[in-house]
Write the structure tokens for this entry.
Amino acid sequence: MAEDKVELALMNKMGQHEVREPNLFERLFQPCVAELVGTAFFVFIGCVSVIENVADAGRLQPALAHGLAAAVLIACMAEISGSHFNPSFTIAVYICGGMELKMVVPYLISQLTGGLLGAVMANGMTSNEKYAQAQGAAFTVLQADDHVLKPLFGEIAMTCLVTMVVLLGAVNAKSKSPLVPFLVGCTVIINVLVGGDVSGTCLNPARALGPAVLTNYWTHHWVYWVGPITGGLIAAALVRILLGDNNTRLLMK
């Protein structure tokens, strides 16, 4: 009888632990730290993969590095912050009801800070000559003003695609999938392979900002803000209006 009481007490204690509400640190501070750390390592891996890219690898090395880094980091941080690591994703997730308004600005600040930190980490790992030659892995593929519209469209379309994968796989209840890290990573790889020579396949203002600040390289930098944010907004609109479940969709309920 005494053993049964002890066992029952232990089960009750375990049950209480499982249903415990997150404290203030877990609700507010920890998610921002996860976004900062995750974005920093994503940008770090991405920058180094471009700076140290061997001549024969072409787009394959950056594509695999960016995609695999995204998959690993998303899988690790998903239960802490949702693993956005991208201002475009955060804005789209908020629009689709996946996060509270009070967390949007802290997330954006954390991601941009993480992007700067990741660029600094890449600078610390690579030689000064290679870092300068690659402009810190800033996006140097855009040079002429008369060709900027096609890369801008590419950034919009590719960001729209990967944002839809995030929204449908992680936010929309009807289509949620535990394979989101794999799906997002594969989508990043596909996009880099397809659009690497067109726009550099940034898809993320935080990925573009850090290298630009460190090397003072701002040529057509606006493309890597307008393109990804516009693509994210289009994806959010598609989910909210057409693709979302009954709770997410605003029209035709």
Observations:
- The two ends are 56 Å apart (CA to CA).
